[in-house]
Design brief:
Glutaconate Coenzyme A-transferase, Aminopeptidase, eight-stranded mixed β-sheet, seven-stranded parallel β-sheet, 21 helices
Length: 619
Amino acid sequence: MELKDLCPQKAISAEEALKKIKNGSRVFIGTGCGEPQKLIRTMIEDETNQDIVLYQMFSSTLADYVNDQSFLARFSIKLFFISVYMRQAAYDGKIDYLPIYLSQIPGIFASQEIGLDVALVQVSPPDEFGFCSLGISVDITLSGLKNATMVIAQVNPAMPKTMGDSFVHVDEIDYLVFHQEPLVEASPGKKNQKVIERIGHYVKQLVPDGATIQIGFGHLPDAIAPFLKDKKDLGIHTQVITDGLLPLFKAKAVTNRNKSYLPDRVVASLCMGSKELYQYVDNNPMFYFKSSEFVNDPNVIAKNDNFISISSALEVDLTGQICTDSKGYLFYSGIGDQVDFIRGSSMSKGGFSIIVIPSTAQNGEVSRIVTHLSEGAGVATTRGDIDIVVTEYGIAELRRKSIYQRVMELVQIAHPKFRKELIEEAKKRRYIFIDQLSPTCQDLLFLDDYKSSMKLKNGSNIEFRPLLPSDEFESRNFYYSLQEDSIYYRFFNKRRVFSREMLQKEWSGVDYKKNMTIIGLMQLGRRKRIIAIGSYAEVENNMAEVAFLVKEELHGMGVATHLLDVLENIAKKNSFTGFTAIVLAENSKMIKVFKKRYPDAKFIRGGSGEIDVEMPFPC
């Protein structure tokens, strides 16, 4: 339907419409890639507009003017999120930043805490009933439109029609300006692909089939999203849809069928990406666009079971504090949606959050894992909110852990060249014990090849992986949980104290080649507890001594046999030709395991009740 036929009194030129803005007005501009470019340029080029305050999230077009002194003399810019295009202007003090959670902005407009005289938005052409669509920008744009005194809309046939709460009737719009032009496209800059691949590798391990996920703002979450394309039945509830999610849609990894709230729909607020992405969401009933006050509400997010938030950071300190919006005193981006989604995921049944961050910045010269945040850096996410941090060097689990445990978790995923320095600085700050040993400076990516799992007959699952320095506290709990006989069979004495010195020596002595320790973990609520430990250590003649400990209630379930299998495979890779063991004669269970695995093993009884076992590997 033609605008001039539907509402002739409202269909006017851009120049006429923008003349309606009075000096001193507070003007809201639609978000990011949905911004009305024609209206913005016309407003700025009309030099009669004076002392105008502009509110926006994700500016693009305004970046063309921020270095023009005549523009800065007539307009003040207040941004809820600093886009890459506006970053230098923020550094130069040419714009103002409002650090507000996205979930709260619509309510702030509605309550008139931020009063709006004018809203400039972009919509699709109206249908036969007079409804236009806000398309790819519902987020805070819907509230800006509903709470402004005057609404001017650019009607652009290039704007997709999206499902959900994106529809606005022409009766809610004061002036309609028809102008067709390509939408703003957002293409992430090229980054270190090796780092992206490694972080994606770890995130893939953390996200199970059937989870509902959120991908946060930023190039890194967007870049790692395609690594989830082999997952099954993912759901999506997120603030922004980006090109990084397209491979998941095309591979049908996203079905939304397991979502416990609004199933079968991708729930989102806005879309930022390529023309291909905009065409994909156009009239696609799989997508359900809602306002940010709904999409980002932690209580709404938490209605999705197994919800996983994935977002990025600029710095993480050793206590778990996260900086996302500033580099020191320089504002860089914004609080955005991170806190909303992290808190929502923590309230979700089975949910958790992941912070992805490269280990270094400035071409490897600066660690992003730091003893303290840079002077002036803002704490966007507190240490009480954080769950998991992932770098290209591994996974750090921080949830509900002490400062000492957090230090060890984070140091072992820092860049190897900064690990010793971080440990020494942590000692100075009394975060850790003064005799704390530093984690290895090896790149431990190869340890992923040594991970395995087994399912017990009762349906329980055990995960096996190499021992890490951060396992020190949990291994203590394991040893103290064992019965006296188990300790005696393992250590040949009735040891009652498992000191920090002993536990540190245990992990520090593991070089993952000549000496290896594998632990078995079972889920207990939100915690993973150690239920088994198996080790080998080099002796002589290409042989390694092997030893095991398994929780008593799991005896006879094949756990020790699985551990022996795993250790043998690792030992073979490191040129060992067999195992030896010293076993007490009354330890019949262990002897049975060895006999079953190695039929040709030699059992030599010693004089003090011990049996020396020699187990050459089968050819």
